[in-house]
From TrEMBL:
Signal peptide: none annotated. It comes from Croceibacterium mercuriale. Belongs to the CPA3 antiporters (TC 2.A.63) subunit F family. The chain crosses the membrane at residues 6-24, 36-55, 61-84. This is Cation transporter. Keywords: Cell membrane, Membrane, Transmembrane, Transmembrane helix, Transport.
Length: 91
């Protein structure tokens, strides 16, 4: 295993650990907001995995996938923030 290959393997392991921890927080989160932050983290890890896959395979299409997931994640986070603000103000 060469230097870049071992570096990619270490990054993959670190992303897998982040995936497991964020998944655990999503399942066990004490509030709805904590679970949504964990979902936000899961999508960030998915973007990281797509970028790592693009790096290891040399295909730029995985970067397009990462960009699409990041944009959808941003829109979902903004929509959830609006939902929480409306919920806090009450009817």
């Amino acid at each position: 295993m060469t230097g870049p290959d071992s570096f990619q393997a270490i990054l993959g392991i670190m992303l897998a650990i982040a995936l497991i921890l964020a998944g655990w927080r999503m399942v066990r989160g004490p509030s709805f907001a904590d679970r949504f932050v964990a979902l936000d983290m899961l999508t960030a890890v998915a973007v990281g995995f797509a970028a790592l896959t693009a790096l290891s395979t040399g295909r730029g299409a995985f970067l397009d996938i990462a960009l699409g997931v990041a944009l959808i994640n941003f829109i979902a986070t903004a929509a959830f923030a609006v939902f929480l603000e409306r919920k806090r103000k009450g009817p």
